[in-house]
Design brief:
single chain, mainly alpha
């Protein structure tokens, strides 16, 4: 009886991994596609907030790719890879801060309508990905990180839409710059959170071995 139960657990685990893998592949393709669209959008709209959002999509695409790789690794290596993902998120946030600082003194006003429709599309996309990942949000550091990525990005998309409304309302660029700053800060904070989650998992693995 115990052998049958063990086999059922393994089979269920394999089914979950297969479903999770399919969701990650879909999320990866969607995020890299949105990254390409937003790179074009931020260039035409002259929006630092859209640039920050495009970096978020690129970072998430890399995140999902690493999570797919992690599925075939031992738990301790999955946690170590999660730390790499967290560090990458911090670097992405710092890069956005640097770009934002470069544009801070610029008098160019972004084009709000392009910002708004791309931000709305991005919100719908991230909402879909977050919905698909919701059932896997309580797993290891990788599963938690991809869920948190999609949730935080949806918040960022709302901020881009609000920035577009602000630019439209006051015909100035400061709402765009402010949102880029907030998104970069969120990326850095999230990256540090992932590093802490992964460090906790690594300590847990070490404790089990002892």
């Amino acid at each position: 009886m115990s052998i049958c139960l063990g086999s059922d657990v393994v089979n269920n685990s394999q089914v979950i991994d297969q479903r999770y893998s399919k969701v990650l592949w879909l999320a990866l393709v969607i995020n890299f596609g949105m990254f390409a669209l937003e790179v074009i959008g931020c260039s035409s709209a002259l929006s630092v907030a859209l640039f920050a959002d495009s970096i978020d999509f690129f970072s998430d695409g890399v995140n999902f790719a690493l999570s797919l790789l992690a599925l075939s690794l031992a738990l301790v290596w999955r946690s170590r890879l999660a730390m790499v993902k967290g560090a990458a998120m911090v670097l992405m946030g710092l890069f956005v801060l640097w770009r934002g600082w470069q544009h801070f003194s610029s008098d160019l006003v972004p084009e709000p309508f392009t910002m708004a429709w791309i931000g709305l599309l991005a919100l719908l996309i991230n909402g879909l990905v977050a919905y698909l990942l919701y059932r896997y949000r309580a797993g290891d550091a990788h599963m938690r990180s991809v869920w948190l990525c999609s949730r935080n990005d949806a918040i960022g998309n709302v901020a881009v839409i609000l920035a577009a409304a602000g630019v439209f309302g006051c015909s100035q660029n400061w709402p765009d710059r402010l949102v880029a700053l907030v998104m970069a800060t969120l990326s850095i904070w999230s990256g540090l959170s992932y590093v802490r989650l992964a460090a906790g998992d690594i300590d847990g693995h070490a404790g089990h071995h002892h």
